[in-house]
Design goal:
By secondary structure, the chain is mostly helical. It has one domain. Helices cover 63% and strands 0% of the residues.
Length: 109
Amino acid sequence: MDGWSRYQNYKRAKDQFYIYGVTKRICNLYIGSKCQRNAALVAAKELGLEEQVSNYYISKGIKWYHYIPYFMIKDPLFLFKKYFWKRTFLEKGYEAKFDFRKLQQQTGL
């Protein structure tokens, strides 16, 4: 189920990076955990923006070994919170706004 949630993050991040480019606001949406950051980085890589996103996360002090999600440190009782279950396993389905396969064939993206 967590894989499903991260796939939804990936699709949303890719659409957002394609439309708006790399912004702090978008990057911060996916800063909370290693898995979310990886979803955003993969989306950015496919658009040629990986270096910018990676540099932003580095500028925020995130290291390669930061695996434990920040909310787990801030709230040790996270297992009993609705936000944990919603964000980790019950992320709503996201329909991508663009067909990147067709765009890639047309523009060489």
